[in-house]
Design goal:
alpha+beta; Alpha-D-Glucose-1,6-Bisphosphate, Chain A, domain 3; TATA-Binding Protein; 3 domains; seven-stranded antiparallel sheet; 19 helices; 35% helix; globular; binds alpha-D-glucose-1-phosphate-6-vanadate; binds cobalt (II) ion
């Protein structure tokens, strides 16, 4: 079939953010908009004669976008496409498929936890051959190409039916439609002690039921394969596990605000272990009756317990890492175990080089992202099964008393102390106000005006500022530098406050305020067991006051607290 060259003009703002280009569906539906961005990807890579994976969470506009990728990809010389059935591949599953089949890269159609449907969000993300999100060097190049694009290439062939597994053709290109779940299930079975988990959950069907909520995102079929088909648990162990193009109208984000379908059932039915994942399957929340695990604690606890997980027992733990705003709980585990540890900017792409270099095994972000070097994306169901593996192992050690989430937390705090952590999100605020807030902090950084000043909260607790800086990261592997990654304020008692602008929103600006206060293991058990909101209130007061956040943003309360 002949290749056509279609004239086009650049669109403004096709800049990939923390995790790809995310905009309203209506924006992607504009004539040439999606085509331009896809062509810009091909102009930035050399995919001629290569294999490319297409994945996605199945959200609204995915079927159209896949056919556009066939047209433009084939015209740009892609030899073979590997696509999940019905264009479904969770983000972690896609990362695995890229690695397993040694593909050149992959295009992921997702806006993660952002709502979907005709009036909500769509997204396109490019991943490289290690299975991870493209590094900034590549995304910068894509953005540059979108600014000067004048035409794109298409190869017109009949659309591919994605509902049948098997091999087919698109013009001269091969198309392999694969089972969305099979490879991922094999991967997890190689990592975790499924027989141990199964034995524990079978023996405790009555007193330790579990519940996974897919929030109508992509993880449904994966969760069914793991929890019902492999672990043999009843249907009642999973809910909202059919992926829907609009996620049933919900906001598929696993946190206490948006995953209320999980929280409600866990509370009503006294379920000791519950979990949820986001739209594209890379986030997770662990939540049981009366027990919430912050993501910062979750990754630290997985690292602490790593040797009960066969993958780490066999391969060892090479190093640990977290994104900058994530609490320092995992640092303490690294120090105790004598492991190397890293602090990288927000976004999973920054972990990839360290993993490829064999220096990082387990890492996480405070934003409900947890994972390891088994792939190069964060992995929601991996974290859920990791927790089940840990709980099964802990119970094996304690045959006479049922060990639950809170026991694991309590023990962890008694060894390492506790990092109280919370994040306030101010979503879709005016960009001007958000920029002014950041400019004001930057001014305080350059003039040292806040250093050593004392700030007292409404309840009378005083905090002295010991440092103020704009976080910058130099990748130890390729020496690339990422600047302006967030304003950090440290206090003399070890507490920390971070301000950051989100890079995943599709409208206005989103300001994130992260607060962390450390209480050592020597504190009283009551102090260590306090609700996070209580442990942090005075620090939050001070952070809001000294940044004048409410004045700059013109809002009184955050939209989401996690
Ligand atoms: C947010 C999170 C960040 C995460 C990113 C992608 O980015 O804070 O930790 O890596 O989302 O996750 P930002 O720039 O909005 O703070 V996902 O599951 O949306 O791909
Ligand atoms: Co996600």
């Amino acid at each position: 079939s002949p290749i056509k060259e279609i004239p086009t003009k650049p669109f403004e703002g096709q800049k990939p953010g923390t995790s790809g280009l995310r905009k309203r569906v209506k924006v992607f539906q504009q004539e040439h908009y999606t085509e331009n961005f896809i062509q810009a990807i091909f102009d930035s890579i050399d995919a001629k004669g290569q294999t490319l994976v297409i994945g996605g969470d199945g959200r609204y506009f995915s079927p159209e976008a896949v056919q556009i990728i066939f047209k433009i990809g084939s015209a740009n010389g892609v030899k073979k496409f590997i696509v999940g059935k019905d264009s479904i591949l969770s983000t972690p599953a896609a990362s695995n498929v890229i690695r397993k089949y040694k593909a050149y890269g992959g295009i992921l159609l997702t806006a993660s936890h952002n709502p979907g449907g005709p009036n909500n969000d769509f997204g396109i993300k490019y991943n490289v051959s290690n299975g991870g999100p493209a590094p900034e060097g590549v995304t910068d190049k894509i953005f540059e190409k979108t600014k000067t694009i004048s035409s794109y290439k298409v190869l017109e062939a009949p659309p591919v039916d994605l509902s049948k597994i098997g091999e087919t053709k698109y013009g001269p290109s091969e198309v392999s439609i694969i089972d969305s779940v099979a490879d991922y299930l094999i991967l997890l079975q190689e990592i975790f002690d499924f027989p141990l988990i199964k034995e524990f959950l079978e023996a405790h069907k009555a007193d330790y039921p579990i519940l996974f909520d897919g929030l109508n995102g992509v993880t449904g079929p994966y969760a069914r394969a793991i929890i019902v088909d492999t672990l043999g648990l009843p249907e009642s162990s999973i809910q909202n596990c059919v992926p829907l193009p609009d996620f049933g109208g919900g906001h598929p984000d696993p946190n206490l605000t948006y995953a209320h379908t999980l929280v409600d059932v866990v509370e009503a039915k006294n379920i000791p272990f519950g979990a949820a994942s986001d739209g594209d399957g890379d986030r997770n929340m662990i939540y049981g009756k009366g027990a919430f695990v912050t993501p910062s604690d979750s990754v630290a606890i997985i690292a602490h317990w790593a040797d009960v997980i066969p993958y780490f027992k066999k391969g060892g733990v090479k190093g640990l890492a977290r994104s900058m705003p994530t609490s320092k709980a995992i640092d303490l585990v690294a120090q105790k175990k004598g492991l190397e540890y890293f602090e990288v900017p927000t976004g999973w792409k920054f972990f990839g080089n360290l993993m490829d270099a064999g220096r990082l095994s387990i890492c996480g972000e405070e934003s409900f992202g947890t994972g390891s070097d088994h792939i190069r994306e964060k992995d929601g169901l991996w974290a859920v099964v990791a927790w089940l593996n840990i709980i099964a192992a802990a119970n094996k050690k304690s045959p006479n008393k049922l060990v639950g989430i809170n026991d694991i937390l309590k023990e962890f705090y008694s060894i390492y102390g506790r990092s109280f952590f919370s994040r306030y999100d101010y979503e879709e605020v005016p960009s001007d106000g958000a920029n002014a807030l950041v400019a004001n902090l930057n001014k305080a950084i350059s003039t040292n005006s806040l250093n050593n000043t004392v700030h007292t909260s409404s309840n009378g607790t005083s905090f002295t500022i010991s440092g103020l800086y704009n976080f910058e990261y130099k990748d130890p592997i390729d020496n690339s530098v990422s600047k302006n990654q967030g304003q950090v304020i440290t206090f003399s008692d070890g507490s920390r406050v971070v301000f950051r602008l989100s890079g995943t929103g599709s409208q206005g600006a989103t300001v994130r305020l992260y607060v962390e206060r450390y209480v050592p293991a020597t504190a009283s058990p009551e102090e260590l067991a306090k609700p996070a909101a209580e442990g942090l209130q005075s620090l939050i007061d001070v952070a809001l006051e000294l940044s004048k956040l409410k004045e700059y943003l013109g809002v009184d309360k955050p939209t989401v607290i996690t």
